[in-house]
Each structure stands twice: as structure tokens, then as C-alpha cells.
Amino acid sequence: MRIIAFYSPKGGVGKTAAAVNIAYLASQSQCKTLLWDLDPQGAASFYLAGAEMVKGKKLSKLLEGKSPIAKFIHEDVYPGLDFIPAHSSFRNFDIKLEHEAGNDMLRQMLAPLSEDTSLVVLDCPPTLSRLTEQVLELADAVYVPLVPTWLSLNSWIQLRDFAKDKKLGVKKLKPFFSMADRRKRLHREVIANPEDYLDQPLDIIIPYASVVERMGEEGLPLEVLAPRSMAAASFRQMWARIQWQLWKR
């Protein structure tokens, strides 16, 4: 079982859209996939509402070990794609982690799924916290969407420094440009020279597109909603790159 995360300390950068689209594409590639929405805002549920409007459960029983993770999973929201929706109680995740002696709670939760699940995709909240530490420790790779702006690039520096300070494996971080609008001069300048701003950037650019915003309205991943769009093509390229990085195939 491989585990990847989509994370950014800055909101509004296309993180959840990327997580949902990559999870869907993975599930359509004969890769049994679980998408876990760890963000209490629950945006991933809106993007998957076309399959089934799913609601999350309170986190307490899972954290206390009174209920197995399987009880939280909505199976086959699309063929091959399972989903754990967020719940408002997920905001207490960090509080629980602060009182845990170990640093592998997420690993323990996911361990029972290893035989039946090929890929876990974590959609993470935009915080620098104990949960972030565990995600960085656990994940095989962490994909970091960045809008080509100074504020977003500054958030990358914060995350990189956080990972270095906590010794959590900076090489796991895979930054990529998201919501790129080539009509804007700054966007063009930044994406033209990504190595000037990022460490080992993923050579994939997700364009700004109104069809991505429609995902929430229609409740559909792009591959279902608008497979011929440039954004959908970019996500297919991204999944191909992720698949190669994880399995070298």
C-alpha cells in the first residue's frame, strides 16, 4: 500500500481538487484507492456528491480505538474508489495527537487496510501542526499545490523549513503549480523558471479553469465532468507521473 498526501499551508490553491481528481484517476487505473478527507471543512464531499452525497462520522471512536476505520469508509463511491468523508469533529485531531505518546497514530489507523488498498490519498487541512508532522512522516510523497504568486511561494518556504526543522524528509515534498493563469505576467514569469523558486518541482502545471470550479457545483471529478478540458489532461499527466514515482512503472 502506498500513501500520498495533498497539502498546503495556504488555502485556496486547488489542493482538494487535485486530491479528488488524482484519487479518481488512480481508481480507474486498476488501483484500489481510498481518499480520506482530513480537512474538517469537508470540501472533498462536494466534489464527490455526484456519486453519493456522503456524510462523515465523529472522530472520537476512531481515535479511541473503539471503532475500526472500516466503519468510516464509504465503499465504491466510484468503482474502485473508497472515501472517508470529513466531519466537524476532525478539528480535534490535533488535540488528540498532542496527548499521544507515539507518532504513528495515522499509520496504526490505516494498517488494517494494507491488504485490500493499493493507494491512500490524504486531503490535508492547511495547518502546520502535529497532524501535519504525522502526514509528512507517514506519506511516501506529499504533493504541494502552489499558485504562482509571492504569497503562495512564501507558504512553500514555510512548509519546507517546517519539514527541515522537524527532520521529516524534505525530499518527500513535491511542489507543483496550480491554478496557473498565463494571462497574468507574474504567473508567466514564475512558471517559466520554477527551479528559481522551488526545490525539485513537479513538471506539471494545473491551469486555472472555470471547469474546476464547476466540480463543486456538479459534484463530479473532471474526468467525468469535462474529460477533454486542459485541466483534465493536466491531471492525467500528473497521475501518470505519480504512478511512475510510486511504482516505477
Question: Could you list the spans in which at least 5 consecutive residues all have pLDDT below 50?
Answer: none
Considering DSSP H and I runs of 4 or more, what fraction of the residues is helical?
25-40%
Task: Give the neighbour order of strands across the main sheet.
Answer: 3-4-2-5-1-6-7-8
The proportion of strand residues reads 15-25%
Number of strands: 8
Most strands sheet: 8 strands, mixed
**Structural class assignment:** alpha/beta
User: What is the alpha-carbon Rg in Å?
Assistant: 17 Å
Order of helices and strands: EHEHHEEHHEHEHEHEHHH
Task: Report what the structure shows.
By secondary structure, the protein is an alpha/beta fold. 39% of the residues lie in helices and 16% in strands. The chain has 11 helices and 8 strands. The protein has helices at residues 15-27, 43-47, 60-63, 93-98, 105-110, 130-138, 150-165, 185-192, 210-218, 222-225, 230-247; strands at 2-6, 33-37, 74-78, 81-84, 119-123, 141-146, 173-180, 205-207. It has an 8-stranded mixed sheet with strand order 3-4-2-5-1-6-7-8, with helices on both faces. Helix 1 (15-27) crosses helix 11 (230-247). The longest helix is centred in the C-terminal third of the chain and has 18 residues, at 230-247. The chain is globular, with a radius of gyration of 17 Å. The chain starts with a strand and ends with a helix.
In terms of topology, how is this protein built?
Blueprint: E1 2-6, H1 15-27, E2 33-37, H2 43-47, H3 60-63, E3 74-78, E4 81-84, H4 93-98, H5 105-110, E5 119-123, H6 130-138, E6 141-146, H7 150-165, E7 173-180, H8 185-192, E8 205-207, H9 210-218, H10 222-225, H11 230-247
Parallel strand pairs: 1-5, 1-6, 2-4, 2-5, 6-7, 7-8
Antiparallel strand pairs: 3-4
Helix pairs in contact: 1-11
